[in-house]
């Protein structure tokens, strides 16, 4: 088989497996397709045995006796399948029966097939199963066959993992017990989906699915609860698309020849095609959700067009794909914006949650966030911290469609998501919710107390914020000011750049709310995982691309507008200006010149233009190495530990595959922070930390011991960190920091620090490490 055909075959199989409604169907599709692709008489798949820890069971076969499916069980490390799983490598044999590990099962009829090739199905470093092919002809499978099967196992791992998750949730919903070997489960066998704790806390609520906009491939298989309502929704979307296309067509006719415009009118013919409408509605009547029905019928049309001989008609496949996206956009808009449609206890669940998705939920109704991507350092997790809601990030193979509308428990400490939890789990988490509320209530007595160590050193504690709704919680928490006001959030929640007057109004409200207490306002920090809908940026590697200060310097008109707005609002408070993601002193010098230009423009207009303290964020390695030079140019430094950790460790904090490697206690990160503090203090400049490390009890103690002057965090974490700092002496924090200097791994540092917290009676604060 040629390489191109191999890739096409694997792509087709991966799609079919991913679309399978359940695990048995997925496995049957897989073995049938692979047997045909490899021209092998037998293809079988073995998955973990739910009855025997470490064992394997035949789950699907093409070529062996079908009645043996589910009946062939291998103990831990038993048989050739056990050998493949143990070694995590292919096994290719001329005569399987002659191998010492061979185990014969007469019910399969496999004695007729001597040649054996088995490969492990690996996904995220774990063996999910074993695929084996067998042949009538004695002799090893050739290298081409071995490569094909190994490639198939690698590509299909994710699809099989997704199907296993679906099966596990279905079994859990039916009350069928499972063992941890078959599925992730707690000590009593209760199934849950495992991710990473993104924002601490617990929530019990109703899942609300968030889908990528207008992406046909992202629409999940979902059943309809009300076919008639779905058909009405579909007809409304058709009418809206018809109107949109008709208006575009009229506009186009005014600009080009009518004959050329007729090509555009082909869209209208498709959207008005009664056959298309009948096929979609027939699928809805058959039980499909409206978006699922549109996806499937559009795919049928695309496939039909692509198989036509006429080149002109083949090109209509692209038109049909575009039409499908337009219809899907209409349906998703209706799904997202219907008044009152969000549940009172909304938990957003999606492959990727955006700040816009969170902002769209009415105030008070958002209870939690669950995302297939991201980590504790991603901006969605940071925003969840700001909202005071739990977040679970990096949930592998999250079955969004199956979860939609279900009751869920979100554990932001351990990174667990329970779907339709049992009464035992629900009661246990309600108890934990009550304990959290009681602890929060007890800590309120510290609100007006200083964050002072046992021997008298005072640490200034500020709040991170970005929404006007966050101001009251920050004030109630006893924050001594705002250590980071994220100005990008008002930009993210609009469909255009906010005007200078709008920005002045927003900033003035923030400054006035805190009066004489300092407010550190960061200029626009867009890029990476924070994209403006009206300034789309497509980059292969956005975190190393056009973001932060780079974008502002390339768009001085945007930057100057914001600077003028900040300066005009500054007389109403105690304001400090912060520049994000400084990577070179040249960038910093350019930004400082623009700040002076904004002041000069205001003074020319006769307006006050105060000279504000200016700070620079240290978030990238280049800034760490140039801290002294940067410090000489500004009044203070602020370390953004989220991005600093990402760049020092080369870990994309939104990539679930590597999110577990994201750890601000890594020795490389702590050494970088130590270096920044030492260089800045040598230049007489104070240092603050506004990343999530400051909200981690362990991190806060280490930062204090390193000599950091100010800590800034979400309002919800502030009283807990104050409790921690008041429980230790300066000498103890310095000892912790000195010991961390010689640690070779983050695990050692965290274990020592958590022991210290437990000994101090603060063990309730380290559930995130469970």
Describe the structure.
The structure is a single chain. This protein is α/β, with parallel strands linked by helices and 770 residues long. It is 47% helix and 15% strand. The protein contains 27 helices and 22 strands. Strands 7-14-13-9-10-11-12-8 form an 8-stranded mixed sheet. Helix 24 links the parallel strand 21 (687-689) and strand 22. Helix 1 packs antiparallel against helix 2. It is globular, with a radius of gyration of 29 Å. It starts with a helix and ends in an 11-residue tail after the last helix.
Summarize the structure.
By secondary structure, the chain is of the alpha/beta class.
Query: Count the strands?
Result: 22
**Ends apart, CA distance between termini:** 49 Å
User: Per the principal axes of the C-alpha atoms, what is the gross shape?
Assistant: globular
**Share of residues in strands:** 5-15%
Alpha-carbon Rg, integer: 29 Å
Structural class designation: alpha/beta
Helical amount: 40-55%
Biggest β-sheet description = 8 strands, mixed
Low-confidence stretches: 177-189, 259-263
Q: For the residues shown, what is the average pLDDT? A: 83
What's the arrangement of strands in the largest beta sheet?
A: 7-14-13-9-10-11-12-8
Number of helices: 27
């Amino acid at each position: 088989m040629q390489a191109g055909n191999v890739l096409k075959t694997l792509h087709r199989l991966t799609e079919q497996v991913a679309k399978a409604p359940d695990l048995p169907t997925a496995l049957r599709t897989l073995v049938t397709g692979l047997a045909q692709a490899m021209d092998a008489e037998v293809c079988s798949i073995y998955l973990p045995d739910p009855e025997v820890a470490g064992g394997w069971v035949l789950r699907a076969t093409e070529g062996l006796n079908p009645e043996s499916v589910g009946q062939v069980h291998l103990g831990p490390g038993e048989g050739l399948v056990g050998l493949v799983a143990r070694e995590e490598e292919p096994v290719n044999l001329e005569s399987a029966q002659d191998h010492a590990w061979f185990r014969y099962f007469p019910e399969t009829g496999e004695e007729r097939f001597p040649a054996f090739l088995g490969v492990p199905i690996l996904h995220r470093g774990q063996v999910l199963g074993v695929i084996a092919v067998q042949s009538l002809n004695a002799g090893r499978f050739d290298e081409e066959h071995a490569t094909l099967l190994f490639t198939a196992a690698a590509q299909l791992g994710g699809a099989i993992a997704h199907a296993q998750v679906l099966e596990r949730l279905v079994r859990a919903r039916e009350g069928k017990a499972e063992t941890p070997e078959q599925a992730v489960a707690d000590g009593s066998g209760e199934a849950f989906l495992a991710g990473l704790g993104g924002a601490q806390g617990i929530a019990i609520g109703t899942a609300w699915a968030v889908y990528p906009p207008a992406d046909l491939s992202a629409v999940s298989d979902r059943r309809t609860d009300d076919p008639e309502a779905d058909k009405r929704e579909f007809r409304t979307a058709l009418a809206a698309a018809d109107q949109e296309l008709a208006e575009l067509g009229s506009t186009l006719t005014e600009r080009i020849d009518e004959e050329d415009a007729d090509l555009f009118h082909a869209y209208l013919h498709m959207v008005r095609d009664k056959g298309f409408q009948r096929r979609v509605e027939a699928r809805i009547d058959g039980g499909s959700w409206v978006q699922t029905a549109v996806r499937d019928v559009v795919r049928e049309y695309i496939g039909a067009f692509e198989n036509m001989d006429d080149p002109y008609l083949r090109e209509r496949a692209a038109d049909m794909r575009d039409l499908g996206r337009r219809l899907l956009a209409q349906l998703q808009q209706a799904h997202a914006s219907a008044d009152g449609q969000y549940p009172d206890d909304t938990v957003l669940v999606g492959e990727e949650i955006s700040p816009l998705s969170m902002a769209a939920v009415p105030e008070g109704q958002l209870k939690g966030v669950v995302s297939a991507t991201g980590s504790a350092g991603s901006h969605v997790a940071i925003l969840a911290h700001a909202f005071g809601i739990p977040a679970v990030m990096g949930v592998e193979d999250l079955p969004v469609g199956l979860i939609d509308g279900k009751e869920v428990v979100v554990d932001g400490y351990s990174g667990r998501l329970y779907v339709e939890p049992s009464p035992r789990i629900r009661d246990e988490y309600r108890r934990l919710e009550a304990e959290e509320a009681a602890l929060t209530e007890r800590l309120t007595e510290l609100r007006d107390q200083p964050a002072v160590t046992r021997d008298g050193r005072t640490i200034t504690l500020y709040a991170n914020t970005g929404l006007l709704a966050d101001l009251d919680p920050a004030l109630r928490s006893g924050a001594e000011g705002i250590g980071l006001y994220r100005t990008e959030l008002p930009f993210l929640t609009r469909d255009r750049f906010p005007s200078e007057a709008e920005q002045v109004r927003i900033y003035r409200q923030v400054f006035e709310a805190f009066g004489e207490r300092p407010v550190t306002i960061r200029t626009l920090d867009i890029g990476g995982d924070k994209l403006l809908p009206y300034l789309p940026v497509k980059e292969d590697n956005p975190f190393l691309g056009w973001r932060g200060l780079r974008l502002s310097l390339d768009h001085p008109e945007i930057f100057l507008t914001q600077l003028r707005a900040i300066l005009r609002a500054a007389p109403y408070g105690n304001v400090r200006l912060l520049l994000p993601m400084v990577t070179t002193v040249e960038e910093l010098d350019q930004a400082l010149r623009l700040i002076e230009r904004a002041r000069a423009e205001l003074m020319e207009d006769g307006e006050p233009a105060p000279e504000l303290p200016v700070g620079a964020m240290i978030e990238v390695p280049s800034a760490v190495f140039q801290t002294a030079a940067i410090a000489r140019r500004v009044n203070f430094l602020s370390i953004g530990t989220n991005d600093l950790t990402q760049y020092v460790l080369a870990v994309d904090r939104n990539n679930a595959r590597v999110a577990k490697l994201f750890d601000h206690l890594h020795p490389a990160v702590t050494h970088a922070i130590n270096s920044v503090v030492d260089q800045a203090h040598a230049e007489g400049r104070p240092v603050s930390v506004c990343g999530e490390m400051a909200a981690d009890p362990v991190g806060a103690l280490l930062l204090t011991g390193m000599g950091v002057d100010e800590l800034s965090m979400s309002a919800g974490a502030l009283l807990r960190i104050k409790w921690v700092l008041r429980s230790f002496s300066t000498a103890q924090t310095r000892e912790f920091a000195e010991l961390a200097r010689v640690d070779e791994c983050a695990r050692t540092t965290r274990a020592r620090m958590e022991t210290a917290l437990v000994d101090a009676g603060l063990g309730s604060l380290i559930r995130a490490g469970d």
